[in-house]
Protein 1
Amino acid sequence: MILSPSILAADRDNIEQEINELKSFGVKWLHLDVMDGLFVPALTFDSKFIKKIRPLTDMVFDVHLMIEQPINHIKEYVEAGADIITFHYEAQKNPEEVIKVIKSFGVGVGISIKPATDVSEIKGLLSDLDLVLIMSVEPGKGGQKFIPSSLEKIDALKGGEYLIEVDGGVNEQTGKQCLDAGADILVAGSFVFKDKENIKVLKSL
Ligand code: DX5
Ligand code: ZN
């Protein structure tokens, strides 16, 4: 199991200390939630912030783009230091093109689907993906309640070459359910940052 803490819930003014603490708990991935105020109402940070923190760690930068027209921004996120770029299926008319552009830069590529989007919609794209990100809450903010039907999506996706990542409302109980259903990566924001000892809890699942 891979744990990818979402720094949305971290103290971003003390990000170096936060990252070092995660590191001391053996965390290897960092989930970076980019929101543009268009695809989702909230605005978080952009590629400049990612570029700024890139020298602080060699963790895998797992960038989750909740932005409109992601195709226009791929290069800047690659240059900022993303290792994997995940965009939203709902954010772009031509997802095949976005996949192609991300791959052309030699970084990992993921697609994310919102709770209302059915797995069948991305079936034709799966063979090109390194990762599928199931949103188990409505994208846009942390601290929401896990949507149980996400477990059926994990089950429907399991068995492929790609990694299955779940994002939103992950805690001890829901995290266990996701892993049992076949998830490979758990994203957790509020659960991890309210008490970093919870990293151990999630890793022990
Ligand atoms: C929500 C983000 C998540 C969020 C998860 O749109 O994609 O990554 O940070 O936060 P929690 O774990 O608090 O639900
Ligand atoms: Zn996310």
Protein 2
Amino acid sequence: MPNSNPLIIDGKVISEKVCDSLKPRIERLAEKGIVPGLAVVLVGDDPASKVYVGMKARAFEKMKLYSETIHLPKDTDRETVLNLIDDLNKNDKFHGILVQLPLPSHLDEMEVIMKINPDKDADGLHPLNLGKMILGVDGPLPCTPHGILMLLKYSDIDTSGKHCVVIGRSNIVGKPIANLLAQKSASGNATVTVCHSRTRDLQSIARQADILIAAIGRPEFVDHRFVREGAVIIDVGVNRVDDPTAKRGYRLVGDVNFDDVKDIVSAITPVPGGVGPMTISMLIANTVYLAEKPASN
Ligand code: NAP
């Protein structure tokens, strides 16, 4: 039976709720003279990265938190980037450091991430923090996967006992969200299947999902053939597609063909306005969390 009234999970509204919930903690820090501060390192001129960095700066400003973007030219050498991270590690103004990915190809992303002091790892991507995540030990969680958990929580979508199918196995989205959903925890307890480009018969596996998470990077790849009636769809993808009718000459679409699946699903995140805003609010949450840690003060 088609569902003409699926829940459209509003990431902007939930993101504001998450930010509101942080305000008492920010006030408590202010009483101690602490303003959570974030350093964002941007290397090069990738247009999408510049947009994301601008959005992060505006979100911090709106929350009256401190943020600074350090913009380096595309050809900045390895030593300069590593030395900058070293300086930021020692700078008390910054409780969090984020390196905007992707980095230009001459830089080793893992080496740069590993240079960040794990106690200042605002993106939760340092191997030490990913290890803590796997072990269920307290630490900053990767922002996008954490944001997905929050979208589900605020939408009263229980994961316990559900079959979650994650399409994508990147270090920043697919692997961590699969792990978090499988954790023995209130936001986990799911049975998780991870799919990727070598998965055979992807559509039939995806159709088994109670909750289907698409983190593929292919515009509108997931259509009704991948979706079981009543499934919850979390669309992580952000893809630019040419659109001469749009002011900028392109529009953003997800990895899911929203119009094709919306009448089958019980709930779905839109693109834009779904996962994206949550990634930013979880970055704020991580920076506040790191500022609260005694090591940072
Ligand atoms: P990624 O590193 O490129 O990983 C893509 C994953 O999709 C890979 O695991 C790949 O499989 C898999 N894949 C590619 N083609 C496939 C196919 N035909 N069938 C099945 N699996 C396939 O991408 P990512 O960094 O995870 O990002 C994914 C998307 O999310 C992108 O659109 C990105 O812009 C977006 N994103 C959004 C946010 C946000 O805040 N909203 C944050 C991060 C990323 P293999 O491993 O086999 O190659």
